[in-house]
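During the reporting period the student researcher (J.K.) took over the structure-prediction task from the postdoctoral fellow and processed the backlog of single-chain submissions. One of the processed entries is reproduced below for the supervisory committee.
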Amino acid sequence: MDFEIISEITDIQTIARGSSVRVRRYLNRTYGRGAWRKMKGIAWIQLGNEVLRAELHWYEAHGIGRRDIKRKRFLEK
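J.K. obtained the following structure tokens:
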């Protein structure tokens, strides 16, 4: 991650789950088998000296937690 999450992630939604998660094989090999879901949400992040509101995407599974958090786009302040 080239940024730091400085607030709680809100407006969390599931984008894909089960066999719809395209990188499920990679996730199972890297982090362990689980019921993987691709999620999205909104949070305030610190990117360098700036504090911005951004949409984040990540994968998560019960017992494993959030993995591979990515910043997708910036939102208006």
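The committee noted the following: The chain has a mean pLDDT of 95.
J.K. will present the remaining backlog at the next meeting.
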